[in-house]
Amino acid sequence: xxxxxxxxxxxxxxxxxxxxxxxxxxxxxxxxxxxxxxxxxxxxxxxxxxxxxxxxxxxxxxxxxxxxxxxxxxxxxxxxxxxxxxxxxxxxxxxxxxxxxxxxxxxxxxxxxxxxxxxxxxxxxxxxxxxxxxxxxxxxxxxxxxxxxxxxxxxxxxxxxxxxxxxxxxxxxxxxxxxxxxxxxxxxxxxxxxxxxxxxxxxxxxxxxxxxxxxxxxxxxxxxxxxxxxxxxxxxxxxxxxxxxxxxxxxxxxxxxxxxxxxxxxxxxxxxxxxxxxxxxxxxxxxxxxxxxxxxxxxxxxxxxxxxxxxxxxxxxxxxxxxxxxxxxxxxxxxxxxxxxxxxxxxxxxxxxxxxxxxxxxxxxxxxxxxxxxxxxxxxxxxxxxxxxxxxxxxxxx
Length: 398
Description:
Elements: E1 4-8, H1 22-35, E2 39-45, E3 53-56, E4 59-64, H2 69-79, E5 84-88, H3 91-100, E6 105-110, H4 122-131, E7 134-137, H5 140-149, E8 157-159, H6 175-187, E9 194-199, H7 208-215, E10 225-230, H8 242-253, E11 258-262, H9 269-275, E12 278-281, H10 292-298, E13 303-306, E14 322-324, H11 330-342, H12 344-361, H13 364-377, H14 383-387
Parallel strand pairs: 1-2, 1-5, 2-4, 5-6, 6-7, 7-8, 9-10, 9-12, 10-11, 12-13, 13-14
Antiparallel strand pairs: 3-4
């Protein structure tokens, strides 16, 4: 009989990732592999587009209203006899769940530095570390943040990098990749333009305003250059706030050289990357490790990004990306974009290296292997159960 396991999302977004979200996309990508070895349930908030309970491809989904999410999940855990639970990004909820189900073992999965002093007290953090069978972090950067504050976590913390579904990112040199590139460039009216792409939440920490400033000196040199800004103010929310209004104001001054696409669903983001010519991630905050880097490398687009947080763990300067050292300086982005446009042979090396890296280490099957290995290290599954997961996605027809 398979062990029973549950993946518990935060109260922010539903699973599957119908409204985006790095955690939800991680679950979407790795759960099919885990379900081959386990009796797997996923808990998330409700959404109008999803039923409260369903089974998809052998994975059970149980959804609860956002307003009573934590207490509903805790009640669910008392009713079910799970062998282990993997709780994403909510250490305080982790303690609630562990108290509700003392016979269940718990793993804390961290996609952000949720054990930072401003997030949780030292006392509660120590309780989490003591209670956890293991801690999984999305990058070594986050692992170091955890273990520097809580050295006792060192022996029970493992890094599990995320990945992408390459089926959503056909090689741009292939017939399919060329077709999709042409379709999406026509959709946004950029068939004969050079497209600098930004993809992410429209927040100050993500830095799109810096990128707009960097574009200005290039507009006269490259009359066909445009900036495509993909994303909403909060994942699928395309509403306006003070910051997005500022972006619209800055864009208006550039007179048609900035295109806002709004939110792009996860299953279509690869097509948008194919439509671009250079991808820039101007993050100003310490990124845990932005998943857009995996996506851009998979799509074969040159990457310019900031050396912030965990980004440098998968992107190396002048090898598979161009790293910006001073994230606040728009001149450095200007110079990087200009260099890439002037040196296509250089960008070819970046894109080839990036695509190869994703193919060999950062597909979702690789992420699932890392996750299953972590669970095995924590003593939650056996080697036989770890080996039960297929080497390819069980939902893939190829």
